[in-house]
Amino acid sequence: MLVRTPAIVLSSHKYGDSARIVKFYTASVGIKSFIAKGAYSKKNRQNSLFIPLNQVELIYDDRQKKSLDFFREAKQIAHYKDLSSSPFKMTIALFIAEMLNLVLQEEEANQSLFAFLSESLLVFDDKEDVFSDFHLWFLLNLTKYLGFYPNIQNGAKYFDLQEGISSHEIPTGSYIAQDDLILFEKLMNLNFLTQTENQFSKSQRNSILNTILKYYEAHIFDFRHPKSLEVLVHVFE
């Protein structure tokens, strides 16, 4: 049976002399990788489709039941305005794509997660100026779909990163408090989709990002910091 599904490109790597392996997050089955034949041919017009975070429609035969399939057709279904031309947005996008590669593993459909990814990226691309907080908001809200969204209570002095809950006593493991907790709570109250001005300074963004990465590390087995982190921090210095 042929499957037609929207999908988001997560990564693309060379495979052999003329093909590449493209990893997608699809609306129909979650994570799925395909072999794109002739990807490096000058006549192949699909090369630009496989840029990370591109939104495409795939048609493939699900009867193949292989770890690596060949898709029959791929076409772009969302056209970004400047996600691939703005240096700042490109840096954020590559960081987001690497993070998604690290944390998305499920090979099953999750329509609400796919909708969150798709809609968030479109809003991010559409904003001309107010987008510097996007990666922070995105990673925090992604935890809703990964199963460890923070449970924070007003008035608590500490937030236990390992348990994901507020605490009035000093946690035994990794935690945040004082200024770091205030910034984290401020991020939780942020709605990027309706945001009209950036809320954090450069140093605050770095501090919050460090907290978020520690939080992911505490909840995802074998989590490692993305290689693009250094570039992201450097660009926003």
UniProtKB/TrEMBL annotation:
General function of this protein: Involved in DNA repair and RecF pathway recombination.
Recorded family membership: Belongs to the RecO family.
UniProt domain DNA replication/recombination mediator RecO N-terminal: residue ranges: 1-78
Pfam family name, one: RecO_N
Designated gene of the protein: recO
This protein's name: DNA repair protein RecO
Recorded superkingdom: Bacteria
Matches recorded under InterPro entries: ARFGAP/RecO, DNA_rep/recomb_RecO_N, NA-bd_OB-fold, RecO, RecO_C
Entry-linked NCBIfam families: reco
UniProt keywords, alphabetically: DNA damage, DNA recombination, DNA repair
